[in-house]
Every structure is written in structure tokens, then in C-alpha cells.
Amino acid sequence: MGQLAVPPECDDDVMNSTSPEAVRNEATDWFERHWDPELPLGRWWQLLADSGWAFPSWPEGFGGRALSAVAARAAIQARRQIGAFGPPNGVATFLAAPTIMRYGSQAQQDRYLPRIVNGQDIWCQLFSEPGAGSDMAGLATRATRDGDEWVITGQKVWNSGAQWAKYGILIARTDPEQPKHRGISYFLIDMEQDAVDVRPLREMTGDAAFNEVFLNEARVADEDRLGDLGDGWRVAMTTLSHERDPDNPGMGDTAAFGSVDLTMTVKDHTAALGSKIDGFSLALSGGVTKVLEDVTGQFNALNDPIVRQRMAKIVEMRRNAKWSGMRTAATVKSGGQPGPEISTLKLLGSEMGRQIRDLGLDAMGPHGMLYGEDAPGGGLFHAYSMFTPAQSIAGGTDEVQRNIMGERVHGLPREPGEKEQRELPWSELPRS
Question: How many domains, in total, are found in the chain?
Fold first, then answer.
């Protein structure tokens, strides 16, 4: 399929005077002069951050150049063409960083963002709970004020990469007498304190990307509260908007989860990872496009007109996602917050993942039933296929996204009794 050429009229209307072609040329020149696989990984990531080529659409001074989505994509294409290793990836870059940029104080931005951009700190997300999955506003984790600190007690689940994280983005209930959406606050928590217990969960892929986290009177300084007291739901919705955006500029093409030794050379780091990236990282990075091309090419599947038609459908879905994604990027860049259109992108991304999975496995014929390193391509596509169902769950299920679209876009009524429950204090809500 390859990278789609985006027509000029698809630009995000906030593009600065630098054309994508000029950006591509400048980026190519910089990467040709600076890329060296013998550099320590930490040094390379710092060079990327200082140059602004780490995340080109991010603000200057925080690893970016404030470029438009189209121009930033041109810079990323230039890096990939040179073969240079990408910037850090994971919850830190595609969830924590954009939320801190939006709501963080200057002190919080100066403290946390540089160490995210250069890969020094790994982050995780602490939102979902065993008793509050799709109804995230029903969360029961409590935060109680103790002087200049908050004491956090509760349980979180489905926390990607928590076993490696230094920090977490956390929402907790600070006022149980407020309605459930209004008594929540958002915190930046130190995951390395003794009061935080991380327990990995093994999933059907064989990996343990997810975890459950127990907080037993963990402490967070009030200065590490993000946004206003009781305004955590709005801040969390910003985070989820970025999580649901398949074109989130913080999603990179390097491994999203795992411990990192910044002193290793990039060459050794890449070799240690091997050629295989887990299905989770492949889904997040968008790198499955290239893997699908390899699979269909290996089995000469494109000789089949039906396969070509299915491939064309995926290309068109990706094109539509990019158009919508650039409009969303324009909204964010102009100071706005992504709206319910993100739910459309999330649904489109989930469906695209299923279409890619089914096409690739069908193209391999009987080989599609294999799993592991003996499978074609070292089993990389198969690992992605096993992870695909998670795309319809993480960040809000497909059903939740359809509810959002129905209520906030089409004006359909909410569930019976929901309006009344939204106004009750959380402490009075019925719970099983």
C-alpha cells in the first residue's frame, strides 16, 4: 500500500510558510549529517529532541518544530528513508505529553516533557478499574488530602507498560459528594514508591503488556495535580481523545513498551529488540502496513483481483482517516480540544485493523494458522493479528464510541435514567 500522497486540499489550514517539500529536504539533510547507529541511544534521542525532528508537529523546545501535520509527515518520511532510528514511543509520548502540554503548568512542562522527549522516563496510564470499565466516571479509587499531598488508595487495571514505568497519569475521586463526573482529579504519580504494587497480566498473545496496579496509600504532591481540583474528567477526556486518534503525532515506529538502556548504541539496542516488534507496538506505530505488503508479496496474493479490491478498500479507509486526522490536528494546534469526531477515527481504526488482519491471514492460506517464529515473517503479522481485538476495547470500546457519536453528534437521547444518575452524588449511586 505504501504511504498515501495527500492532496493539497487536505492540508490542515494552519500550515506555516514552510512547505512539505522544503521540510523534507531540510530533514533529509539533517539526518544524513547526524544519523549514526553507533551513537548511544540516549545521545541519539537527545539529538532528535534538540533538533526538533523527534516530534516535528510538537512545540519548539519540546522536541518539535510546530509544523503542520502534512509537513511533519514529510519530515518523518525523510527520517525513514534515511533509515534513522525513531524517537521514543509509548504512553509517555502519545498520552502523557500532549495532556501535559494542554493542561500542565510551566513548571510541570519543564520538569516532565524534556525527559519524555529524550526517552529518560517511561509512563503508564492509570484510568480503568475492575468495577468501572466502560463507565470510567464511576471509578472508586480515592484521593484524600493530607497537607500538601494526596493519599491515593484503590486499584487500576489494563495498565500498559506499568511494570517499566517511572510515572503514571492517574485519575482518582477527590470528592465523593459530587456527581461522578465532577468529583474527579487528575494526577501525575511516581510509580516507583513502595505503596504502588504492579502485577503483570498475561494475555492470549503470550505477552504481558497489561498490568493491574494496587495503590495502598500512595502519595502525590498537590503540585503534581494536573488541571483544577475536581476537573479531572475533562483532563482525562483530552487524554482519551489522543488515545483514540490513530494519527496521534506522539505514536512512533519504535517499540512502545519495555525497559530501555540508554547507554547502549542504537545498533545494539535494535539488535537486542530483534527484527520483531510485539503486536501491541505494531498496532500503535502503524508499521503493520509494511508487514501486510510483505505478506501479500511473499504469497503473490495481489495477483488475485479480490485481494486487490480488499487492499484498495483499506487504502481508502486509511485515506479517510488521514483527512479526518488532519482536521483534528488543526483543532488541537489552534488551541481547541478534539471532539466527538475522534470516536469516528477510533471506530475506523478498529475496523481497519480487522480488515488488515483478515486480509493478511487469508493471503497466507494455511500458513495463516501458524503462530510463533516459525510462521512467515517470523510470526510478526500473526502477533499483530492476535492483538487486534484489543484495538476495539482499549481507549473505549466500539460500543462506547457509537454511543458518543449517537448522543453528541446525532442528538439521540441518553439511556433512560442516565441524566438523573449524572446529577446524584457519587456516594449515593447504586453499585454492585
Answer: 2
Where residue 214 sits, what CATH number does that domain have?
Answer: 2.40.110.10
CA atoms within 13 A on the CB side of 281: 19
pLDDT tens figures, 186-195: 999 999 999 9
Tell whether 155 is covered by a domain: yes
Which pLDDT belongs to residue 228? 97
Tell me: pLDDT of 231 over 70: yes
Based on the fold, state whether residues 173 and 53 are members of the same structural domain.
Answer: no
Examine residue 134 and state whether it is found in any structural domain, yes or no: yes
Average pLDDT of the residues of the chain: 87
Does 243 qualify as catalytic in the annotation? yes
How many CA atoms are closer than 13 Å to the CA of 129, on its beta-carbon side?
Answer: 19
pLDDT band at 13 (very low <50, low <70, confident <90, very high): very low
167-173 and 184-190: which strand pairing?
antiparallel
Q: Among 207, 238, 269, where does a domain finish?
A: 238
Q: What is the pLDDT of residue 15?
A: 39
The pTM for the full model equals 0.82
> Do 29 and 139 belong together in one domain?
no
Q: How far is CA 1 from CA 56, 193, 286, in A?
A: 24, 46, 12
Grid look-up 540508554 returns: 262
The yes-or-no verdict on residue 134 having pLDDT over 80 is no
Catalytic residue among 38, 243, 418, 420: 243
Contact call for residues 296 and 357 (beta carbons, < 8 A):
no
Domain C-terminal end among 189, 212, 238 = 238
pLDDT at residue 277, as a whole number: 59
Looking at the chain, the number of H-run helices and the number of E-run strands are: 15, 8
Q: What angle do CA 7, 10, 16 make, to 5 degrees?
A: 105
Could you tell me if 271 and 370 lie in one domain? Answer: yes
